[in-house]
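Run log, item B.
One chain of 668 residues. Sequence copied directly from the ordering sheet:
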Amino acid sequence: MNSRWLTLVSTSLVAFAIFVIAWQSCHWKTVDFPSIAVSCIRGEQLAKISSIVERNEFASRLGTALDLALPKDARVFMPDMTGPTNYAKIGHYYYLTYHLFPREIGVSVDQPARLTKDGFLGRTAESDQEILACGFDVRIDVMTDGSHLQVKALHDLPIQNPFNPNRFEPGGYFKHSISPNPESFNPAWFGSNSDTAIAFLLPLLTALAGMWLLRFLFPALNVQMPLLEQLACGLGLGMMAVAALTLGVKLCGFSGRGLILGATAVGGIAEIWRQRKAFSNGIADSFVKMAHRPVATVILAAGLLVFLVLFRLAGLQGLMEFDAVAAWSLKAKIMHLYSGRELVQWFSNPRLAHAHLDYPALVPSLHAATYDSIGHVDEFVTKFWPTWMLLLLLLALASLNRGGKSRFHAPSFGLLGLLLLPVTQIYVQFEGGTLPMVFFTVLGFVQCALWLVEKDRARLGLGLTLLFGAAMTKFEGFIFLALAGSWMLLLSSARPLLKPSPRLWRVLAFCLLAALPFICLRVQIPSLHFESGWAGYALHAPLSTLSNWPGIFMILLARLFVSPDFANWSGEGGQLHWIGRWDGLSSLFNHLTLGLAWLCLLMTVALWFAVPARRQVIIWTLAMLVGALAAFSGVFASFVNITSLAQVIGYTADNTAGRYLLPVLLAW
């Protein structure tokens, strides 16, 4: 073991953390890349807002106000939305569809709304009379600048009006002004402390109850694992069980109200009682250790302060993520409101094709479990799930550090740097699948890596089970699971260790039961979103896909390391043209990850020489990264066959491909 190389690794981790902390200090007013200071100020501002309309993000305000105003059976029409030239307006359709659900939002007078690669199909209306004749009650126009909407009632409606009554004319336009006392139109549940308490506790109860599953499936690991690692793995297994139970009960025709809260509360309280000595001794030992390690204590205190800010925001912010409005939260609302055949019918509805209804259902099931526990849809308490995931993931990684005292602080600095990254702060405040993918993927890859080191088959079983949880979260999770399993088989030194465990049947049965509700739903619903057909596009034109594959791979790899403004290409004429811009040294790293990829590469090289016995783990980890890059490049290349190279390059942006690669980057 070469101590000089290990010193380089430790120094790099500390330097990276200092750089990230310095960035946070210098960009405390930056809104494009969230900082802890901005989040803290945001929490103070939101706490003073008493109106549900004003508490929402700007894009959701009108939708929330209209939901309070319009009758539940009102039908809404949006003219000038059909055809490829109006594709840029679809975001407004997503927001209105979510907030006004289950009201119908129409865009054509000759067929139900359905999104395709060429926009909405059908014929738009020519006049208010035609819209009214088709049975619609309200007209909503996207104004020419695309920044706001104009809402018009086509006949007298029984308005429950949060709009200023003096500014609304039946049969005319809603004026963009709110009642002088908008809080008087809040739902009864808005700002409920009980909602916040239940939503805060539910993920923790799930983690505690999931520890029973961990003990049942992998009893040997219960003795080996640190308590915090057990808690994180318990959360992963518990989320898989909660999601399956929530969706399964709904498909059987039951509402499931209160079921998940009751089950996790019983399991969680029982686990606390069972391990009361371990918890109390662990807390006492932690205080003793912190007394002798002041640097570690400062790092821990800083991290906990960050989570105090995040937990406060989790109970105050409305929907933040565009994809959540379009898909994740919409599906959660459907799951909460409907069951049995009605649930299947909504998931087969063509006008909701944009919601990726055929996607794995773990994330919306978790949010639906929260809604079932509090008794209604409350978008202001959905962020406790990702916040708990991030907290327990970082605590588990910290508890796995087995280095000597001389190197103890470096991993802690590194984890604090990961917590403070702009990309981490973005996705922990989002409601979609990115943070759950990070949680399952990082924890699963770490367990597989530990198997390569410790040769304990239980580690491999747990790692693959957690990666199966990633597959239940998003389709790219299947890619990570397949990559992990495939490369395990390709490593000749690992193959003798792949003998089945005596308890393998338990793990397989758990994974089957966890996936069964989604399988039952999936076989009953069609694939409505055009992106679901990527494999068919690739097989239809394999030469085109293969020819575009290397270029897209290069773009993804470059943007992992450097600024997207520098690693920028256009696809005009079907050929790649570099149009990047050099902005000095800041162009040499991706601003969302602040050079994390360079840090990983440096540590990989250093550890290759420092710890030769661990080269197998390094090779496997790099194979995961390169394999993921190749897989996503192939998927993106297939879309060139139905759109254009210029449009497909848009998929490589930080807010699309970046979120797909983030889990494997953090695992690296």
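Observations after the first pass:
- The longest strand covers residues 138-142.
- Strands lie at 76-77, 105-106, 115-116, 119-120, 138-142, 149-153, 569-570, 577-578.
Flagged for discussion on Thursday.
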